[in-house]
Amino acid sequence: MSAQDYHIQDELEMCSKDNAPVYPKKSVIRNCALKIDLSKVPKNKFEKVTKSGRTYLKLDYRLLIRVEGAQMVFSFDCGGKEYGRIEADFGT
């Protein structure tokens, strides 16, 4: 696999209701796009999974959000170790 294969994109969604819905509904909207660089995570943290005849790499990680001043700083950890910051795009 190339280094580019370890760059993924996901979306952070939000809901302004007091009780978040179990499944996304009309009240759930996109907050931002997250660009995550997983290339620094040791390769032994990835699990090979085969589904429908295709093999994928699975990684369990946590999205971390810290407030620094007036900014939200996104990062992720895997197995309790923080591996890097996440780029957030709030554009429409």
UniProtKB/TrEMBL annotation:
This protein is called what? Answer: Uncharacterized protein
Source species of the chain: Massariosphaeria phaeospora
Q: What is the lineage of its organism?
A: Eukaryota, Fungi, Dikarya, Ascomycota, Pezizomycotina
